[in-house]
Amino acid sequence: KKLHEKARCAIYPRTKDIKRFVVPDSKVSWTVPFPEYKPVDFTSEGVKAGPVWADKDIREPNAPVIKFNCIDGVINRTSFTGKYEIVNKCPRNPEGRTGLCGRGSLGRWGPNHAADPIVTRWKNSEKKILQFVAVQRKDNGEWAIPGGMVDAGEVVSVTLRREFGEEALNTFEAPPEEKVHIEKSLDKLFHSGTEVYKGYVDDPRNTDNAWMETVAMNFHDENGDSVGLFKLNAGDDAMGVQWMDITRQTKLYASHEDFIKTVAQRHKATW
Ligand code: RP5
Ligand code: MG
Ligand code: MG
């Protein structure tokens, strides 16, 4: 099994000097003793400010109780990896040590659920090279699947469609008449998809107590006559968007390479 690597990146994303405690491969697993282990405690100012998408600090004496490992009101706190442990009130990353405790820039303690729409078409009529809609993330410039967080109470199918609209088509800024047109095409495209992955994401924002999980779905335009014709327009957290060839060299954010590789293999594409 592959160990999480990006979740052990030296400097925490969007900080200059928050350095993770170094965790060698052999010490990732919680079952391996690591008495010297002193993870850096870090929660971003943005999360501490208490926006709607973030939990309260459960380590404070009078903090409200969070129901872990279950659906807690409108928030899904279950993990695709199974039941996670709670140690000293805090959920423990099921994939092991990350060198950092607290929540970093993630809002939820424990799993932070996201959804990733992988929209594909063939590059040309030979149907050998598959392309997918990739966005360039504003936070670090890396190319990625146009995914996003599942809002409280939102169903995943809605998140997939909403995030694709926001990041790859810029529905926020589209004129009203165009919006209607986009929504119609999205209805068609997102009508049928196939599940590619459900589980933990090796995201650079992960910590010992907060981590990303996702549901990745593939929406494929076999004949290039529906999505293939979409006018791509980067919006929201995206600063760029393109139909990107899926090749062995493709480098993407978090574990996104693994997801698109699965998609290429399923469609028997050359990659
Ligand atoms: C990744 O972060 C997920 O796979 C998803 O693509 C993304 C969600 O976070 P934001 O794009 O909202 O930052 O772990
Ligand atoms: Mg988004
Ligand atoms: Mg996003």
TrEMBL record:
Nudix hydrolase domain residues: 111-266
Entry annotated with the keyword Transmembrane helix: yes
This protein's UniProt keywords: Membrane, Transmembrane, Transmembrane helix
GO molecular function, one term: ADP-ribose diphosphatase activity
Protein name, entry field: Nudix hydrolase domain-containing protein
Residues of the full protein shown: 51 to 321 of 321
